[in-house]
Amino acid sequence: MGGALGQVIAIANQKGGVGKTTTAINLGGALAAMGHRVLCIDLDPQGNLTVGLGIDLNSVERGMAQVMIDPDVPLASVIRQTKTKDLDVAPTTIELSAAEVELMTAIGREMALRDKLVPDLIERYSHIVIDCPPTLGLLTLNALVAADGVIIPVQTQYYALKGVAALLKIIKTVQTRLNPRLAVLGLLPTFYDSRTILGRDMLDSLRDLGDHQIFRTVIRQSVKIGEAPTAGVPITVYDARSDAAKSFMDLAKEVASAR
Ligand SMILES: Nc1ncnc2c1ncn2[C@@H]1O[C@H](COP(=O)(O)OP(=O)(O)OP(=O)(O)O)[C@@H](O)[C@H]1O
Ligand SMILES: [Mg+2]
Prior knowledge:
binds magnesium ion, single chain, alpha/beta, 42% helix, binds adenosine-5'-triphosphate, seven-stranded mixed β-sheet, Rossmann fold
């Protein structure tokens, strides 16, 4: 525990389809491309991060479901290498959904993930990135309790700021009661399309949302970002020269310099 600022990063937003998993995979990939050792943790029962990093869900016998509910299953025991150098993954299966229900009656249920981030494991990685499900339930709460920093992807195609305000409120409660270390690293504009008025408007209203940092990096809409997961690699490997890869490298630099 007590890692450096931004060593353990949760990617959270209870709104679905805003680019959480994409951010987790590609920020992880970009940090790895910079030479950091990175672990991505899939805390969403949908398993999109697991699949997007090239792991066959049918091959996952033990994953985050077992880690979250069984005190005898260390996080290290489920970690796999991915096809990408310096990028490991703690995979999940749909069983994580039942595990979340089971967790509800457990003592210290908000601490289950934090308890698994033992010093031995933390020391192996310079960054640990946690992908959250699109809910504000116990899994997201566990991620926020385990993290030093949270990144909130926000779709700039829709007015979704109401949801962000609710999330920021929960983060504040977590900071006060459970994890004073937690810092909001920033809101990350995603699906940006500069050709639309709404996209530009949304960027402006994000900047008006209060005193929270907005990343300088903006993730634009890009076909390649949607394609890379089907190859099981981050965009920095799928097409290192693409604008999308460059954007995630920029984001990784912002994140790494926040430490
Ligand atoms: N910048 C982008 N340009 C184009 N497609 C994108 C972009 N970002 C994400 N996508 C695609 O949009 C879909 C939703 O993105 P993603 O899975 O990252 O969102 P999410 O917030 O993790 O969703 P969920 O809430 O279901 O977990 C995916 O198919 C992804 O490949
Ligand atoms: Mg997702």
